[in-house]
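Quarterly update from the structural biology core.
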Amino acid sequence: MKYPYFFRSRQLSGGMLLSLVLAPCLCQAASEPAAAPMSMYFDDSQMVEVATRAPKPLRQVAENVSIITAEEIEAMHPHSVAEILSRESGVFVPFSGREILGDEPLYLLGTQRQQALMLLDGVRINLNSNGVVVPNFIPVGIIKRIEIIKGPASSVWGSALGGVVNIITKDAGKSSIPTGTASMSYGEANTRELTADLAGGNDKVGYYAYAGNVDSDGLKNDRYSERNAVYGKMQLNLPHSSTLVASGGYSDPAYKALEWSPSWNTDLDIYDDVSNDNVWGTLYFDRPFADRFNLHLALQRYENDFTNERRSLGTGVGGPKGEMVWLDNWKDINTSVSGALNWAGENVTANLGAETSRSEIDSKTTLGVLLGPSTTINDPLKEERRGVYANATYVLGKFSITPGLRYDYHSNSNEITSPSLGATYQVADDTLLRASVARGFSAPYLVMAKDYPGLKPEIITAYQAGIETYRIPFLTSKLTAFYFNIDDAWQTTSSPNTNEGKVRRHGIDLDLRTQEFHGLSLRSNFTYSTEDSMGDGSTNIEGDETYTANLIFGYRHKPSGIRAELAGNYIWYNANMQMDTHDSDDILWDAILSKDFSLPACRGDLFLKAHNIFNGNQMWDVDYPNPDRWVEVGAMFKF
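Predicted structure, tokenized:
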């Protein structure tokens, strides 16, 4: 086995050593204590929704949770959700080429990609065709915050064995004078992005609107991509402090993926031309009453039209250039209705909720002249899911304890009950301990349940414990240890898929952040996960390691408004993430230089961003090579 690069690279070893040296220096060089605690874990204004489906102070959250704010996203000037998530500890993103758009999978703490649940304003956007999420349709400009639970969240969300990524969009405006942003960027290979949003309102109504376009000729192998997106939200403020919020969006990413002939040494000279059209909408009603109660009702819908069209390159037996050889199409619709009753007391909060959803998927395969012509329309598939959940948080002095329970019914699978118990203890003003135990599951997605009707859900029992502290001056440290025991794991290497496996996964998740000192800051995170799989005797894996690390050096000169950042990302792929021809030899480094400005009518920043500045290689399959160094410039205006 090739020895992991993390332990043999001078580049990465030097970077980690530098971070360990600089962290204490940055922390201890200041002579005065911080005016307020650094860590958001001790700030009751930091509320989290994803843990219990109701706002809750972060210091009472026992789960391993990360939060990404709109301000952090803006400073990155990213093009995709995958780019944002790749910086977070515990989140593994094996990029399929690192173009500005792509179908990057998502793994939480090394679990399988279909075991991670992603939500967009509470709308489940995992696909019924393969169980995974393709988040390239989500414009980063509409994001208010991202909340991530790393580890099972089934006692709240149902099928979420690996965890949950909850993307919360920006609020409707409240000011009669509209506010908004406009941004633009341009880089190599005609890579460009234009976006604009606007928000405003009054005491009775508020609105938010967004429109954007992303386009590129392709940074590697002519992998072109384009996306148009629009999104809108309106809030009505009703009598009795009630609110009605309606939102909806449309996004249509299209991109070139794999070239078959150079990748697989075949005479069939074709490439994948992918289109991924998405429409989603929500309707929320909230009504507080009796001082401490709140009623929340939701109607949600998500439609996905995913087409993978194999077209000829025109250099071999595929036919004339651009001719369709064959096409696969899936039309996926999910509609859900949910309701929750929340009660907030002085030392107790409680939540009771129920939801029901209906999924449908239609699919077809069309063969072109070379292989047909013909069209096969598959029978439509349908599934109903229903769930009831309850949880409560009890605060007893420095302790908080949160029991939770959920029951799930799936028409194409088994009934499941998922309990959880979490606790936090504030040892001191600057130190918080967390611990949790939970039972969770991953249900077969719709197509899998149809193909393998006897397949049962995978079941996980998870144990996690962690600490958050800023005891070391000017340094916030967060460490979580986890142990996952998965039974009835799916065997998917051969057909039929079966429940014959057991998986044991354990590891650590570490995040370190310094407070800014003389404009300098450092963030470093590292996640290590190792897997022991015990299947039927032929698929056993022992000590299969995967890990990811980020080093982010920052500098800010407040008088001039100049900011600079150097960010390095590394991932070592385990057997679930890689092909035999993967390449994990390098850290990929990006750099940003920006300058804030302020004008009478607006403010904003100008930026220069260089990607992969050392021409590194990092890919789960060499058939999806990442681009060499490329540069873009841009500007953002706020008014």
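The CA atoms of residues 119 and 166 lie 5 Å apart.
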